[in-house]
Write a structure and sequence with these properties.
It is a single chain. It is built from 9 helices and 5 strands; from the N terminus they run E-H-E-H-E-H-E-H-E-H-H-H-H-H. The longest helix has 18 residues, at 110-127. By secondary structure, the chain is of the alpha/beta class. It has a domain at 5-104: Oxidized Rhodanese, domain 1.
Amino acid sequence: MAVQTCSVHEARRRIARGDCSLLDVREYPEYVEAHLAGSKLIPLGELRAQPEAAESGEVLLLCRSGRRAREAAELLERRGDVRPLVIEGGMEAWKQAGYPVSSVKGPISLERQVRIAAGSLVLAGLLIPGARPLSYLVGAGLIFAGATNTCAMGLLLARLPWNRPRVAVKPGEAASLLCSNK
């Protein structure tokens, strides 16, 4: 079955009508940087482990560009009581359309963290005697990440303590609760 999608314009109309729920499947650092008011944050990895955490009925799915939301839609379709709808282009398209986003104080973006970590590892590989293979390994990892649109380093960084909500939250709780102690 093909994943159902909608444009950001249609998503905005549906959200305004209030006849659907909005689920953000990005990681916490991405979410705090920019999210839609009223959305619930359940990172894709957590949704894989607990698909029942998503509400039933029509659910609009959002990620950065649409890839993770499509995977979440395929997962939720199997539940049978969820009608997932992927917002085409994700948060990037939402912002490009000029629609409002919310943000809260939190960690720097995962993309920036990956750049800092990768640069530090390459520099260490060049400066520390005998560690040159580290620079080659990081370079190969970055090429692989670009070619496959995946990032193992980003997934690892997302699991670090500063990239997790500061309050104990069950998957699917209101996004506003995730940021209440910020």
